[in-house]
Amino acid sequence: MSDATPQTAPDKLRKSDEEWRAQLPDEAYRVTRKHATERPFSHDDFPQGPGRFACVCCGAALFDQAHKFESGTGWPSFWQPIADAAVGTTEDRKLFMRRTEVHCARCEAHLGHVFEDGPAPTGLRYCINGVALTFEPAD
Q1: I want to staple 128 with a disulfide (CB 3.0 to 4.6 A). Which of 78, 81, 99, 112 is the partner?
Q2: How many CB atoms lie within 10 A of CB 133?
Q3: In a domain, 116, yes or no
Q4: Residue-wise pLDDT tens for the chain (139 aa)?
Q5: Full-model pTM
Q6: Which residues of 55-81 are buried (b: 16+ CB within 10 A; e: fewer)?
Q7: Which residues are catalytic?
Q8: Burial, 97: exposed, middle or buried (Cβ in 10 Å; 0-12, 13-18, 19+)?
Q9: Domain assignment present for 9
Q10: C-alpha span between 69 and 79 (Å, rounded)
């Protein structure tokens, strides 16, 4: 399904900026490698069936459809990653705000941010850019 097993910390994947630019569509490159944000409500066709969401850059499994919820924010939202080791976080102080950035643990692609206003059981809302993800339907 993906290149990284969700139970363990994935091996790091490093590429040059030129390699990422050649591999990714423009919007996915801008979001994942340059820390941009896509427009809200730009994914009306986001997958609804069972499966996993993987990193568009490296294919690492990141989120499960069973953990997705409708947050009303305009971005895909999840209450937890597929495994704690699948994502990393860093403090983001851009735009005069203090937020927690979420990135792929394997390739460090910028995915979005995590907030403490999500549903039970975690109370977290992983607000993720849709262009940072690919969908792998369940078998």
Answers
A1: 112
A2: 26
A3: yes
A4: 344 444 455 588 889 889 999 999 999 999 999 999 999 998 777 888 899 999 999 999 999 999 999 999 999 999 999 999 999 998 877 666 678 999 999 999 999 999 999 999 999 999 999 999 999 999 8
A5: 0.86
A6: bbbbbbbbbbbebbeebeeebbbbbbb
A7: 127
A8: exposed
A9: no
A10: 7
Phi/psi at 73 (nearest 5 deg)?
-85, -20
CATH of the domain at 109: 2.170.150.20
Amino acid at 121: P
Q: Is the peptide bond before 121 cis (omega within 30 degrees of 0)?
A: yes
Provide the domain limits for residue 32.
17-41+49-137
Q: Minimal CA–CA distance to 132: which of 31, 3, 5, 25?
A: 31
Give the residue carrying structure tokens 């809200």. 40
